[in-house]
Write a structure and sequence with these properties.
There is one protein chain. This protein is an alpha/beta fold. Helix content is 25%, strand content 25%. The chain is globular and about 50 Å long. The two termini are 27 Å apart.
Length: 218
């Protein structure tokens, strides 16, 4: 892979389903490949399905949607170290409000501070908790967000402890608690959060309620 190209799984225009930008129109650039195997993963198709595109081709496709908000996601976008930083720079240069969704298992220190990082810290139920790179928290800013995908009570208690011990609510713009879709009822997570007064924001994956949960390109 040369530095001016990327392996892209899909580029699409949809409603932002997560984060504090939920509900807004957004262009998504889903890059292929991931070094984690979370057992609740809903984008396994992005592991291998890809087409090679130049950074210029990706930018042109994003620009064609005429939408100010864009998100680079995966897979794990930071795996494509050569091209992803060129893409970030190009989209920022064109004035996009830019989000980056990353697992937090790879170093984020090089990510431009103008990017809104949405870091998905892995709970024990994911099977990948040991891959969390805790030093990444030092590179988060008041623009960024931390997400926990919660599958059960043990995940909730782990996430609650991390939020408190790492003082996350004071570090970042938002702490997001999201249900592992199909594994934890939203009402149960909401009840736990209310009972324990967790300094976090409850989140649903809106796109899975607007369209069929397994729909792609939305």
């Amino acid at each position: 892979m040369d530095s001016g190209s990327l392996l892209v799984n899909e580029i699409f225009y949809s409603i932002q389903g997560e984060s504090t930008r939920a509900g807004r129109p957004c262009v998504f650039v889903r890059l292929a490949g991931c070094d984690l195997r979370c057992n609740w993963c809903d984008t396994e198709y992005a592991f291998d399905e890809s087409r090679k595109m130049t950074v210029a081709e990706v930018v042109a496709q994003v620009e064609a949607y005429r939408c100010g908000l864009a998100e680079i996601t995966g897979g794990e976008p930071l795996l494509q170290e050569g091209g992803v930083y060129l893409l970030i720079a190009a989209l920022l240069e064109r004035g996009h409000e830019l989000m980056l969704e990353t697992s937090g298992a790879l170093d984020v220190s090089r990510v431009d501070p103008r990017v809104i990082k949405v870091m998905d810290l892995k709970c024990p139920g994911s099977g990948e908790c040991e891959r969390n790179l805790w030093s990444n928290l030092e590179h988060l800013t008041a623009r960024d967000e931390v997400k926990f995908v919660i599958a059960d009570r043990a995940d909730f208690e782990w996430a609650r402890e991390v939020v408190g011990s790492r003082v996350l609510a004071e570090r970042v713009n938002a702490v997001l608690f999201s249900c592992a879709f199909g594994r934890l009822e939203p009402a149960r997570l909401a009840a736990w959060m209310l009972a324990d007064r967790v300094a976090a924001r409850f989140q649903l994956q809106l796109h899975k309620h607007i369209w069929p949960p397994n729909a792609r390109g939305v």
